[in-house]
Specification:
CATH topology: Chloramphenicol Acetyltransferase
Radius of gyration: 20 Å
Oligomer: single chain
Strand content: 15-25%
Order of helices and strands: EHEHHEEEEHHHHEEEH
Number of domains: 1
Largest sheet: 6 strands, mixed
Distance between the termini: 24 Å
Strand order of the largest sheet: 2-9-8-7-5-6
Shape: globular
Helix content: 25-40%
């Protein structure tokens, strides 16, 4: 998905400078000039009962090698929410607010499920015609590349830099941080780096782990980190005091509070829940509007 706009002075390669920011958020960029100064963590439970039924039914007719997974659905739900709520696709860097041109997701894939199996970083970008099927195929293709044992994306560059003597690496890191402040970091460094993605995802539920707090980084432009826990049967008390057993998932969300306010974030979570409760909406193209009122 590309946000088209004529480039102006102060814009960056991946985003345009938001000039009409209110006073509070402008000053916050100076008083809390580091992303880690402005972290907000939310431990949220999503009801995924309908989604789990949807996946079970859908995967009966799918090729075992290309089944739609829980994480694919989460990515689509978040992508559609960000498309509807564009302030979530902002970042603060160099003490200015920027609006990204694209929605991107980053996550880690293990090459082997062993202690020394190694990890690789994967980036995927949303397109206007993104559907759940397209996300699934895209991620499977990229994970397959990782598990061939070859360096993928930024991994090759990092492996080369790791061999440089420490004092020289410290000097290069300092130069990169200055370039990052002014938005001049070369593509060879930013492309494939999760620190420059809209959302960094960690699916700890895939290894039976809980959702956890994950910090943001001052380097780069990433403003949202999401960690997924395991899906569990949870008793829920309804308004009539009856108890219903629902499939719930714990999700940890760390975000930069400078990009929007709490009211905006809270309403965005309602859209995610609506999509997970109506999973058939995930099969619709990303840019297709849905019938939902906040």
């Amino acid at each position: 998905m590309v946000l088209k706009r004529k480039k102006r002075f102060g814009d960056r390669r991946d985003a345009y400078w938001v000039r009409d920011v209110d006073g509070i958020h402008t000053i916050m960029g100076h008083l809390m000039n580091k992303r880690t100064d402005a972290e907000v963590f939310v431990d949220y439970k999503f009801d995924v009962t309908e989604l789990m039924c949807f996946l079970e039914k859908r995967n009966r007719s799918e090729d075992p090698e290309s089944k739609t997974k829980f994480m694919h659905c989460i990515i689509m739900a978040i992508a559609k929410t960000i498309d509807m709520r564009p302030d979530l696709n902002r970042y603060v860097s160099g003490r200015r607010m920027y609006q990204r041109h694209r929605i991107s997701f980053a996550f880690v894939a293990r090459k082997k499920f062993t202690d020394d199996g190694g990890e690789s970083l994967i980036i995927t970008e949303a397109e206007d015609d993104w559907t759940l099927r397209k996300i699934t195929d895209d991620i499977y293709a990229k994970v397959d590349k990782v598990r061939t044992g070859k360096d993928y994306g930024i991994d090759g560059l990092m492996n080369k830099l790791a061999k440089i003597p420490r004092h020289l690496l410290m000097f290069l890191a300092g130069i990169v941080k200055i370039l990052d402040f002014y938005g001049k970091t070369p593509r060879a460094i930013t492309d494939g780096d999760p620190n420059f993605a809209t959302v960094l995802l960690s699916n700890l539920g895939s290894i039976n782990g809980p959702s956890v707090y994950h910090h943001l980084n001052n380097y780069g432009t990433n403003s949202i980190v999401v960690t997924l826990g395991t899906v569990s049967k949870t008793p829920v008390v309804r308004e009539d005091r009856s108890i219903d057993i629902r499939d719930m998932v714990d999700v940890g969300i760390t975000l930069d509070e400078r990009i929007a306010d709490g009211f905006y974030f809270a309403r965005s979570l309602k859209i995610v829940q609506h999509l997970l409760s109506n999973p058939e909406l995930l099969d619709r193209p990303l840019k297709e509007s849905i019938d939902f009122e906040l």
